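Slide 14.
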Amino acid sequence: GINAEYMGYKKGRMVKHNHVIPNVHLRKHWNHLVKTFFNQPAKKKQRQLAREQKAAKLFPRAVNFLRPIIRCPTVRYNMKTRYGRGFTLEEIKQAGLNANYARSIGIAVDHRRLDTSLETRDLNVKRLKAYLAKLILFPSKTSRRLAKKTEEKKGEPMTDGKKKERKTIIPEATTEKLNSAAVKEQSKSKKVMALGKAKLRAKPQSITAEMKATKSFVKLRTEKVKERYVGVRKKRAELAQQEAAAKEAKPTEAQCTSTFTLNIYQYIRSLQKK
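Slide 15: predicted structure.
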């Protein structure tokens, strides 16, 4: 270090001039500024047990709801697909369901979302129908109560043919389905009917004559012009149609001649009466 006596200072003497008073701060009390996560492994185990308990409670239902596939907003991200909050009311209707019933069989519904894309709507309707095809619907409490009453009265086991018919949107599972191995399987995945991974790159291919002949810019500009002038061209076509109809409705030369002759005759007769 620097020798204080060499610099002109003596031990125990205060500093000269307007400098900082020497006061070493060794106790910083940093305990409240530091946060540790030594409980991380225990928390991981706790979350896992919570998931298992939830799955056991919901068995044989799926742990999560079925979600729609939608496009990300804005031009920058609209080429990407992701899971949405819920199916629109139109998509639910197209699949032959209603909102309340859909929620009761594990389908998420979002009454706020509006989708004007026919492609997305058809895709989600197809997704719903695929889900319904795989769904095993257990008999409701009403069906079980009716079956129990019938067994008590008749003293015979209840078969699928003897069940009282009820108006259900989706037919309930038969005894064969309920006894199948698929009933014991439960969907514990985070996403029901998960999306497949999208292909990010296309395989290299040789350029054909058709590709060379395609003029993308010209095609886009043509479509843009068509969209811009659609109203003007429609009005022009209607006017042309009206003019053509008016020409057809005009009287012929022979009709005009006969009308003129009749008018002269009527005029002469009126003079004779006078």
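Speaker note: Confidence is low (pLDDT under 50) at residues 162-166.
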